[in-house]
Amino acid sequence: xxxxxxxxxxxxxxxxxxxxxxxxxxxxxxxxxxxxxxxxxxxxxxxxxxxxxxxxxxxxxxxxxxxxxxxxxxxxxxxxxxxxxxxxxxxxxxxxxxxxxxxxxxxxxxxxxxxxxxxxxxxxxxxxxxxxxxxxxxxxxxxxxxxxxxxxxxxxxxxxxxxxxxxxxxxxxxxxxxxxxxxxxxxxxxxxxxxxxxxxxxxxxxxxxxxxxxxxxxxxxxxxxxxxxxxxxxxxxxxxxxxxxxxxxxxxxxxxxxxxxxxxxxxxxxxxxxxxxxxxxxxxxxxxxxxxxxxxxxxxxxxxxxxxxxxxxxxxxxxx
Amino acid sequence: xxxxxxxxxxxxxxxxxxxxxxxxxxxxxxxxxxxxxxxxxxxxxxxxxxxxxxxxxxxxxxxxxxxxxxxxxxxxxxxxxxxxxxxxxxxxxxxxxxxxxxxxxxxxxxxxxxxxxxxxxxxxxxxxxxxxxxxxxxxxxxxxxxxxxxxxxxxxxxxxxxxxxxxxxxxxxxxxxxxxxxxxxxxxxxxxxxxxxxxxxxxxxxxxxxxxxxxxxxxxxxxxxxxxxxxxxxxxxxxxxxxxxxxxxxxxxxxxxxxxxxxxxxxxxxxxxxxxxxxxxxxxxxxxxxxxxxxxxxxxxxxxxxxxxxxxxxxxxxxxxxxxxxxx
Lengths: 320, 328
Ligand SMILES: Nc1ncnc2c1ncn2[C@@H]1O[C@H](COP(=O)(O)OP(=O)(O)O)[C@@H](O)[C@H]1O
Ligand SMILES: Nc1ncnc2c1ncn2[C@@H]1O[C@H](COP(=O)(O)OP(=O)(O)O)[C@@H](O)[C@H]1O
Ligand SMILES: [Mg+2]
Ligand SMILES: [Mg+2]
Hints:
heterodimer; A: about 325 residues; alpha/beta; eight-stranded mixed β-sheet; four-stranded antiparallel β-sheet; about 30% helix; B: about 325 residues; binds adenosine-5'-diphosphate; binds magnesium ion
């Protein structure tokens, strides 16, 4: 077994709202190996973003990380001081988002932001920072980078803004990148451009990636392994091939069958009855029990542990 | 057989771009630029293309939610663009629209009962007792419960809200529904419920759908025929089978290549198309696609290719591309 770059154990993040506390991430564990891409997929509200923000230690009130560890290259991120975390964020690990303006400042030029990011993490001169900024803009495929260096985010198209954000995230050679729905707002053509770019850079710098999306097609093409989440928990983890070709968890199966598959047209899609319960209404036991065709009595009371079944890891008392 | 419900000829919708203190018109966005199209009764015709290519504008112009700049639309055999007053109102009942965002299209202060009664009030149809019965049956038609009638939109999930929008669109028993990205904001499992519902309703009421989506997997699932748009023009139109099996236009080919495939395992992703859609304010000369086209030839930046058939074996298939023309 290779040593994982990231090892998450029993991660638990709780939000305390008017309706009481609920665990948006409820005991999630996974590893990501060096150079690997782990795809995390699931419908909205299942805890994908909260998992990522927890690793980045960007959870704000009324949320709190209430349990677990997240070992990145031997250090538990959840135990670092805020100032240590400042150095890790944008240095050893970085994150990109669906909405580039989450990471870009509208009143500073792209170049200025890149320079600041580099100067914060590297002992280099201003001139060197500038050279590196322009190099980064070139690397992410922004045409005439010297000109764009002087531009503000609003002067760029959607696709170019996405690239600028990626340049920011990658400016200090992170070894671990979290990509949270980075192509969700883009047209398929631009999506393919951005995915190609992420793969290129990953290969070039042997980066480890946690890639989040609700799009089963994207997850299928970009991931080495896939983790399916529901109600703040992991349902199933397997290689990208196995998760789609031999899924075991009833939710994984239902999710895959409800998506129109290009080139494999069916007359009627399979559906999952009902909708995802609100977080404070999640039942005891398995979160999927009330929509599950395979549910047993035990599912109402006990939480199924994540166990090896064939090549997959599955949390289910009555798998397919 | 060939029962045309909507016959569109040379339709244009140009938006003025105004600037300065006097708001003088400085340019025009040719959002829909000379589109001709026959839509057949009972079919689902898809409109696809990158954002900004004019799908929504075309959808709205077809039913005069946007007043077209020029062209002709014949609806059920009548000259629709010249209808006025009562005639227009009556014909409009036959055409409805469903939008992407069910949150924005339902008034939060109205109960579902009020929302669904509104079309009858506006058109002065049915007495109030009958209205309630009709509203309840509409709710059941779209898979909700009659007992939901007194609830407010916020009490429903996203998928249920879209069902309410569909119920409202069905109220006046239309024959044509323009569906503008109706499932794009919904989760996968909810998308499937709504897509199945829309198919069932189409069979039941012999509905014609114009289905707009940027998601080609959804388009393949639901459409019988598909028109591919680029900068305000249709560049290719064909039946579903032919469009996906034998795409002719390089733009269509690139779109299809870019669709993420499910279940084939990780692959090295290669972009199928460089660059971005150019500004519609300043569209490229000749074929508007030529700056991004991998097959561009000398003629492509000089003359606009016409949309026409290039394969007699598949007469319903048309593309606007110089590759298939004998060059002058
Ligand atoms: N700041 C917050 N306050 C309260 N609840 C939150 C907050 N952020 C996220 N949540 C809740 O946590 C759950 C998981 O959210 P998230 O991780 O964003 O889902 P997704 O899988 O769509 O990224 C959801 O139920 C969401 O409503
Ligand atoms: N009300 C409007 N006023 C001015 N320009 C508009 C208006 N609506 C759309 N446009 C422009 O028309 C073009 C086509 O837009 P749209 O029909 O919304 O495209 P799509 O639905 O394919 O994304 C775009 O360039 C858009 O900016
Ligand atoms: Mg999210
Ligand atoms: Mg649109």
